[in-house]
Amino acid sequence: MSVQEYFSLVFTDYTLRTITLGTAILGIVCGMLGSFAVLRKQSLLGDAISHAALPGIVIAFLITGAKNSNTLLVGALISGLIGTFWIKGIITKTHLKSDTALGLILSLFFGFGMLLLTFVQKMPNAQQAGLDKYLFGQAATLVESDVWLMGGVMLIALVVLVVFWKEFKLQHFDADYTKSLGFNTRFLDVVMTALIVLSIVIGLQTVGVVLMSAMLLAPAAAARQWTNNLAVMIFLAAVFGAFSGIFGTAISATSNNLSTGPVIVLIAAFFVVISFIFSPGRGLLFKQIRHWKNRNDLQLHKTLYFMYEIAKTHQDISHPHAVKILNNFQGYTKNSLKSLADREYITVDGAMWSLTPKGYEKAINLYNQQDNLND
Amino acid sequence: MKEKIAIKVDDLTVAYNFKPVLWDIDLSVPEGVLMAIVGPNGAGKSTLIKAMLDIIKPIAGSVEIFGKPYKKQYKEVAYVPQKGSVDWDFPTTALDVVMMGTYGSLGWIKRPGRQQKKEALEALEKVGMLEFRSRQISQLSGGQQQRIFLARALVQKASIYIMDEPFQGVDATTEKAIINILKELRKEGKTVVVVHHDLQTVPEYFDWVTFLNVKKIATGSVKDIFNDDNLTKTYGINYKVSVLQ
Amino acid sequence: MTSAQIEIQLIACIVAIACAIPGTFLVLRKMAMISDAISHSILPGIVIGFFLTEDLNSPWLILLAALSGIITVVMVEYIQKTGLVKEDTAIGLVFPALFSIGVILIAKNAGDVHLDVDAVLLGELAFAPFDRLLIGGTDVGPKSLWVIGTILLLTLGLLIAFFKELKISTFDKQLAATLGFSPVLMHYGLMSIASVTTVGAFDAVGAILVVALMIAPPAMAYLLIKDLKKMLVLACIFGVIAALAGYWMAHWLDASIAGSITTVLGMLFLAVYLFAPNSGLISVLHRQKRQKIEVHLLTFLLHLQNHREKSERHINHLNEHINWHKVRATSVVNLALKNNMITIDDHIISLTEKGKIFTTEAINYIITNKSAAIEDMKERFFLFRG
């Protein structure tokens, strides 16, 4: 099956529709909540939480022996939360810094989970093979009840964000001020952290513990480049997230032996790269162009100012002068002369140039501006 | 004196990591004064106003705003935090930030509407930032950002304004604009408390002053207590008012 | 023990030491998450290197993969410099993308690359002794032992040669720059060593254990000791203990060696986190409880000194005015009485001479010397601690 075939079948084939809907919803949830994770400078917390979820999944499996994904998710949720609290405990109670705490919990929990996982794989009953999908995700294993669960989480997240929109915005911008206005910031904090952990946990089956955090960050990081409005940013992040999910699933489901997680992450990363380079306001390309343009303008202004200094000495400002005089001035080129003429600041006649009244005016303004800057 | 007390701080002790940073502070700020809090670095100036605003919990003592605890009076108080305390790359506009000043009186869940927008625009005009209303906040200069913060506090229409170093890193024009607005607030009978660094400008800008260095050194009108003795007690070195000018 | 078992343990120990050395500096420089990023992002380098050399232990592959680790660091720093996203987001964006490329390359060429995803994460330490290095037909030991041994020697050599420079640039970048040691050079030197070590260890123990071995032993050492040299030694010892204990645990459970070593590291860390003498959780909580009542005592004494009037010194005033609950007020008053700081006369509390001296000294101490601990003074005055 090719990717085109995949999309032509999406609306008719039950399984494909379920899978696609699931990853799209997941992308929306991650985009929305990831925006807040990025803004609250907890980008790497997601990475630690998702890794910390692994032992919980395996232990839940060992206890219940069930492959029912909801049971496993409860396990993931519990061990993810334990990891989160331990990170907090390390940061607040010892002198270890947050990066060390994150790295510790991430690697130690995950290593323990992998130990349990290899242990499970050696067990005689063969049905456990399904646990592997939690490493890199396998969207193809999504069933309708999973999608309902994701839909439920999306709805909860959406309602909470709409209801407490003003409070969340305020708190993420200025927490102290929020407190001074009489809002309970701890409550808001707990709600947001809980939502982020929940979104990570429901994504594990699709994207996997190793790459889940990127699913949270990348759409938000891409969306941030296109807008300076929080609501628009969250909407765009949800869109980027949904597209990453859908395309990632389509590509991985149509080729053999390809986990969903890495494909989704690469598509999200593609959105990030495009946004970093081409966004009109903040993008690197336009920044570079603006930089060149400014440098160019500065050069022209310097030349014009030099001409003004010469022209000033004459009664008649439009008195022609030889181009040769300008050779003393380093900034001048044939091109800059032409640009100045195009802007009607000067007229060029053969080897002579003369300032126009417009150019004279402009140069005086430049002079004034410089004066102001010196103040 | 018969005047009303706006902020009453009683036996306030605040500790970070169990080391006192403010120690048994007693302080009454009369209504209608423009007060500077001065003291060396690490004297606990920001801590004191954060304790006034119930942002930090003290280990002993209490703060009363017009005779009641802060929790019941938060609508009476507007806060201007230090400019460096927030993320200026946050995706929001100048107008949006000023609108945040209305959130306190709106309370939980309720959204700002046309009335709130009108008030925010008025405040922006007052600080001379109306034309920058739809600018992203990172594209504003330091002085402009400070004006936005001031506008946000003005929108709160409070009786008490508490500000943490509003003149830090702003240009001369902005400093003048801010101080004019503060003086205007005082004329309207509001109380203004400002953490201030520049001792030189204290007599010119303020009429009330508190010297602070972990303990309260002195508090009173600038005329009475802004002298060599208190400066020396606060800063530890031989300070002279005459040298400042 | 068979010779294969000894060789595996030897490799594990050398990997542990080779990781602990750069790890100590990463932890001290608040860059622990960089090791996580490097361990993930060298994967595409390894896969491409494998296509070219067809040998996981080839020095070219190691250099190529280490290069991709350094490219990660450069990319992260470049993105941070553009200011388009927050600093930690930059790390979180770069390494998952590179790791994904690696995983997809492996999956797409499953037939040609003898790497599978489990091996990427966990390594195949148990098989390390089977890949022998033959020099002129003689068997001189497992290849990975030679690889990681060489890396360890290199690391040790650089550590000894540049110890002073590393130390200064870690604790005081500005001083390092003024003394003429380039902090930038030290930074990239450290990143290069971390990358090379990660690649060298990766084949044997996998990405996760590399991160665990780089962060956990130095973190434990840091909780126990502040001296850099001792910290390095202690981190190496912790690494070796975990390597040996982990090996035998895996042997006993018949499970993954890397997973077991990480689990042992986790248990060791939990123990240190709870029981470390000064920085452990139990000691911290105990100290905080004591400091809490003592800071209340200080507050109380200062209040007595500040207020001479009787109404302020009445015993009931404590609850009403200072805003304390009865229990706290009682325990504070009792502590003050036990230490002969106060006397109570008809419900009016007065400071004793000793109380006055203590209070005056304490306030001077805090105003002039804020950062230093007040503990010495407490030792001199207190008969009973809180």
Structural summary, described in words:
- The complex is a heterotrimer of chains A (375), B (245) and C (386).
- Chain A is mostly helical and 375 residues long.
- Chain A contains 16 helices and three strands.
- Chain A folds into two domains: 3-279, ABC transporter involved in vitamin B12 uptake, BtuC; 286-374, Arc Repressor Mutant, subunit A.
- In chain A, 74% of the residues lie in helices and 3% in strands.
- In chain A, strand 2 and strand 3 form a beta hairpin.
- In chain A, helix 4 (69-93) crosses helix 10, helix 12 (230-254) crosses helix 13 and helix 14 (284-312) crosses helix 15 (334-342).
- The longest helix of chain A has 29 residues, at 284-312.
- Chain B has 245 residues and is α/β, with parallel strands linked by helices.
- Chain B has a single domain, classed as Rossmann fold, CATH 3.40.50.
- Chain B has helices spanning 45-52, 70-73, 94-99, 103-106, 114-126, 142-155, 172-187, 202-205, 222-225, 228-235, 241-244; strands at 5-16, 19-30, 34-38, 60-65, 68-69, 77-80, 160-164, 191-195, 208-213, 215-221.
- In chain B, a hairpin with a 2-residue loop joins strand 4 (60-65) and strand 5 (68-69).
- Chain B is globular.
- With 386 residues, chain C is mainly alpha-helical.
- Chain C has two domains: 3-276, ABC transporter involved in vitamin B12 uptake, BtuC; 282-380, Arc Repressor Mutant, subunit A (Orthogonal Bundle), CATH 1.10.10.10.
- Chain C has 16 helices and four strands.
- In chain C, strands 1-2 form a two-stranded antiparallel ribbon. A two-stranded antiparallel ribbon of chain C has the order 3-4.
- In chain C, strand 1 (132-135) and strand 2 form a beta hairpin.
- In chain C, helix 2 (32-53) packs parallel to helix 4 and helix 3 (59-82) packs across helix 8.
- The longest helix of chain C has 42 residues, at 183-224.
- The chains are: A mainly alpha (375), B alpha/beta (245), C mainly alpha (386).
